[in-house]
Amino acid sequence: MVKTKKSLLVLAVAMATALAGCSGGNGGNAGNAGNSGGSAAPEASANAGSGGEAAAAKEPATFTYFNAGAQVPNIDSNKTKIGKLLEEQTGVNFKLQYPVGDVNTKIGTMIASGDYPDVLSPDTAIDKVLDAKAFIPLNELIEKHGPNLQRVYGPYMNLMKAEDGNIYFLPFSPVVGEYISNPTIEQGAFFIQRRVLKEAGYPKIKTLDEYFDLIETYQANNAGEKLTGFTSLIYDWRTMGIFNPPMHLAGYPNDGDVIVDMASHEAKAYSNTDNTKNWLKKLNEVNSKGIYDESSFVNNYDQYLAKISSGSVLGFFDYGWQVNQALQNIKKTGNDDIDYMPLPIVFDGVEKDQYLDPPSFVNNRGVGITTSAKDPVRIIEFFDNMLKEENQVLIQWGVKGEEYEVDDKGRYYRTPEQIEMLKDNKTQESIGFSYFNYSWPMYGGGSTLSDGNSFNAGRQPEVAQASFTEGDKLILEKYGAKTFSDLFAKPDERPWYPAWSISLEQGSPAQIFTQKSKDLKLKYFSKLVLAKPEQFDGIWEDYLKEFNKLDVKAYEDTMTKEVAAKIAKTQGN
C-alpha cells in the first residue's frame, strides 16, 4: 500500500503528473500542511471561525448534501457545533440528508429525474451515479482551488482517476503521515457477550464450533431468560453479516466477493465453495436447535441495532463500524456482562486469522459534486478548507478544553468525563461528530497529524486506554491482551486491498454477475439456513446449479485483471 511516510517525495512526483499546470500547492496553505517540518499541529479552538480570512467576506450559501452511507437524522450542518464553526470560516451551510428506506431506490429516483443534491455520497450506488454522469470532473477545481486537497490526495491521484483521466469524487481513506492501527475492532469479528465467556471460565476459543458451543451451553443454562443465541443483519446493502463470514473463517480479510491468492494474486469467487457451504450449514444446525434468530432475514437496520442494544443477543458477526451505535448503547448501561468481546473465529485447520485491515485506499467510495450543483467552486473551497489540519482536528477531536485536552508534551487526550460524555449518541450528533467524522474529504482513519498525534481520537493510545472500562480491562487481562486488536493476527500487506473497492462498469459481464449473484444469495441463503437439516444438501445443490449458470469466469477474470492493475498503480507503475 502507498506509504505516506514518504509523502513529500511522492507528492512532488504525483503533482507533476496528476495535475498538469498545478501551482506550487502550498500557496495559500501556509502553516497548515501535514508535513510542516515537524511543527505542532494546530489545535481546534472555539474561535476557530476567525481564521477564514477570504471566505469570511463571502455571502452566506446553503447547499444540499445527500449521504447514503449513514443513518442519522437530517439536519442543517450549522445546527451542530462543528458545522457552525465551519460556517463561520466559510459562510457555507449544508442541508444534510440521509436515506429512509432503500438507498438504491432513492438514488435511482435521482438518476431518473436528473435532479440531484449539490453534493452526493452514493455509497454502494456510486457506480450507477458515475454511469449516469451525475458527477462533474474535479481536476480543474482541485488544481485552482484545492491546495489542501492536493496535499492530502496527491499520492493517490492515479488511483482516483477514471478511465477518461478525470477525478469525479473524493475518497475517504488517504493516509497522511505514519499509519496507526486501531486498538479496538472497527472491522469484522464474531462478537460474543462477556457473560457467556465469564460463565465458561474465559476459555480461549478459535473455531466456529467452539464459538457456537459456548452460546448453546449458555442459552441452555439460562433457559428462563428470553435470549437470542445468534443474529445477523441482512438488509438493503448491509448483507455482509451473512455473505462475508466464509472468507474470514477461511483466514482472509474483507475483499468483498472474492478471495485473492497472496502469491498469484488470482481472484476467486467463494460463494459457491465449501467455505460458504460450511458456514451456512452451521447456521442451519444452530437454527434447528433454536439458537439462530429467524427474524434476521426480515429485520431492518434499526431493528437489528435495537435488538443488540437490548442486551438479549448472545452473539453475532458484524463490522465494528456498522454496529458501533448499539455497542455504545450497551456501554451506557454500565452492565459489563451484556457487553461484547470481539473474537477472530476461523474454521478448523486455519492457522492464522486476517480480520484486521492492512493499510489501504478505498477508491470506490467517496463524495462528489453533482451536475445540479449551484456553485462548484464554493463547494470545493469548503472541502479544501476542511482539510486544513486544524479543521481535521476539529472534526475528529472537537474543541480543545471541551471535547479534548493537550498535556505538557503536546499529546492529545480526553478526560474520563469527556469520554463518558461522548458515549451518548445525541451528544455526538449535537457536536457534529456523527455528521462530520466520515463521508467528507478527510484524512484516512490511520493517519497522524504533523505533531505525531493520531488524527483519529480512538486510535490515540492515551484515549484508547482511558476509554476502557473496568470490565474491558478485566476481560483483556483474562486473555493476556492490552487492546482488543491484540487478540487478532497482524494483517499481511496486500497492495490491492480491498478488492471490493474495484469499480465495475455498469452493464459489463462482471457487474451483471455481482448483481445476479447477490439476488441469488438473498433468495437461497434464507432457505438454506431455515430449512430442516435433512433438506440442506438438496437446497445447496439447487443453489449451486443456479449459481453456476452465472458468468463466474468473466467476473473472476475481471477481478484478477483489476487487482493486478491496482497493484501496479499503488507501486507507481
TrEMBL record:
Keyword Mitochondrion carried by entry: no
Signal peptide: 1-20
Gene3D superfamilies: Periplasmic binding protein-like II
Keywords: Signal
Annotated Low complexity bias: 38-53
InterPro entries: Bact_solute-bd_prot1, SBP
Protein name (record): Extracellular solute-binding protein
SUPFAM superfamilies: Periplasmic binding protein-like II
Keyword flag Lipoprotein: no
Region (Disordered): 34-53
Matches recorded under CDD domains: PBP2_AlgQ_like_3 (cd13582)
